[in-house]
Design brief:
Largest sheet: 3 strands, antiparallel
Number of domains: 1
Number of strands: 3
CATH class: Mainly Alpha
CATH architecture: Orthogonal Bundle
Order of helices and strands: HEHHEEH
Amino acid sequence: MMFGKHHTPLAFEMLTEAAVSRRLTREALEALQKYHTFPDRNAAEVQMEVLQVLQHDGYLKPKGNGFVFESQLLRAWWKNRYRFHFVPVLKRGKQ
């Protein structure tokens, strides 16, 4: 609800990437930019805003070269709910 209709798909994909791949890496964030464009905004700026909200709300925290779920229980729930039709961004086109 916080993101609105334009940023919500990006937030969901970032969370699903973190759940399925166990970490939302900087490399994955960069790769996601080609799937989410914004007519009047830079995709990297939007990603940083989304990350700030996801960290503030307790979903993700920085770790190593990326971001991981704060709660392993929430990560497991998110993964089980959204993984079935999801391909991690760094594996797209390699199948």
